[in-house]
Amino acid sequence: MNIALYLERIAQLYPNRAALFLGTDPIADYAQFDGDARRVAAWLRDQGIQSGDRVALFMKNDPDYLVLEYAIWYLGAVIVPINAKLHSKEAAWIVEHSGAKLTFVSAVLAKDLDAVTGDSAARRVVVDGVGFAGAIPAEPMDIVARSGDDLAWLFYTSGTTGRPKGVMITHRMLRTMALCYVTDADHVTEQDAALYAAPLSHGAGIYNIMHVMVGARHVFPKSGGFHEAEIFELASHHGSVHMFAAPTMVKRMTDVAKATGTTGQGLRTIVYAGGPMYMADILEAVTHFGDIFVQIYGQGECPMGITALSRHDVSDRSHPRWKERLQSVGRAQSAVEVRIGDAKGAPLECGEIGEIMVRGDTVMPGYWTDPEASAKTLVNGWLMTGDMGAMDQDGYVTMHDRSKDMIISGGSNIYPREVEEILLLHPSIDEVSVVGRPHPEWGEIVVACVVLVPGAILDVQTLDAHCLDHIARFKRPKDYVAVDALPKNNYGKVLKTELRKLV
Known about the structure:
By secondary structure, the chain is an alpha/beta fold. The chain is 32% helix and 27% strand. It contains 17 helices and 25 strands. The chain has a nine-stranded mixed sheet with strand order 2-1-10-9-11-12-13-14-15. Strands 16, 17, 18, 19 and 20 form a five-stranded antiparallel sheet that branches. Strand 19 and strand 20 (397-402) form a beta hairpin. Helix 1 (5-13) crosses helix 2 (30-46) and helix 4 crosses helix 5 (107-117).
C-alpha cells in the first residue's frame, strides 16, 4: 500500500482536526493538509513527474515540507531528502546521482544551489514562505496505488569513500517502522503533538507517519531549527509533545532547563538516537525531566528500526542490572531479528563482542545503482551494520565500537575519508588522517592530523576556508594537529588507533 493512505484516511475521518502549526499558529486542518497535498501531486503530474520518479527536497523545516512529502507519495513518486546543512555542491551531487527530475529548495538555499547547478535551474522550484503548497493552482488528484516493494524515500548516507550512498527505502519499510514504533517505543494518540526541531531530511522526516496515522498535531518551530527556549515554550503551549533529538540536543536541553528553572512542562516523549548518549547525561536528564525518554537504534539502511530501549528501561533504577540496560541500545524491535556475528557472520555466544546484524521488513533492499556496495552490506539476508556490540542473556544489545571510522558529532554522521579527500586537494597538505575526539557537548569533534609539504606552515584559517568551499560546515575539522609522519602498519595502512591516542 501507498504510505500516504494514512493521511487520506485521517482526513476522511477527522477533516476539521488541527493538523499543522507554525509555532503556536494553526496553519491547516487535516482536510486542508490532504487537499494541499493532492493539488501539489496533480501539479507535479502536470509537470511530467510520474510514479517512480525522484523528487528532491533541499529545504529547511516548515509545514510545506510535510505537505510536499505527501504530495510526492500521493503521486507515487519517490522523495529524495537532502540535509539543509549540506554544502550546495554536495546537494547538487545528490540531485544528479538520484536522477531527481525536480527539486524543491528553500529560498535561503536557492542562490548557492543555482551557483553550482547552472542550466538545471529550470527543474527547480523555490519554496518561499509558508503556504506555498496551498497556493498551487491545480485540481486535487486521487492517490496512486503503490506496492510495499516500491520506493518511497531515497536517503543518502555520508559516504566512507567520499561519496554518499543512496539507501532505497520502500513503502513497506516505512509502514513497518511506524507500526514498530507504536509497539516497541511509544503509544501515540490524537492528543499528541509532534515537534520538528531536528532535520526533516532524516529520522524526524519519517517519524511524522505514526502521528498522521492517528491524526495528531504537527508543530514546526518558527526558527526552523533547534532552540531550547523555543522548544520549552512550544511544549508548554501545545502539551503532550513528542520530539526526536540527538543526544547532544538532550544534553543542551537539560543544561538550559536547569539554568533557567524550566521543568519541561508539556514534553511527553523525547526519542533520542543518532550517537552515543553518555550515562551521566541521561541520568541528569531523567532526574530533571522525568520519565519521558525512549532510545532508538537504527541506520539509514534500517531506518529507526533495529532496537528500542523503553521509557521504563531508561528510567528504571530498581533492576539489578539497570545500569547495564541504560548503557545499551535496547532490545530488537518487533519486525526484525538481531544477532551478533563474527567476521563471517556466524552467530556468537551471549556476551561476546561482534558485528551487529539485522534482518526483517525494515531492512533496505539495497543501495541505489550500487550493486557492489549492496552485496557487501547485505549478506545472506542480513544487514551488516558495521557496528560492534554484544547481546546479554535478556536480549539487550550494547554497542562497544564502530568497525567503520565514522564520527558522530552533534547527531550528524561524518565520514573521515570525505574530509580527508577535500584536505588533500590543498597544496600545503601532503598526507592527512581524520579522527574523532570525544567532546562533552557534541559527542565527538573532527580532528585532522596533517603532514605538511616541505616548507609549508599550518594555516588553520586557510584550511577552514578551503573546507567550507567544498563540504558542509559541520563536517570541517574543529582542530588540526601537525605531525611529522602518520603512524602506519607494515601494509601501509594508517593506524587511527594511535592517532586517537595522540589527539
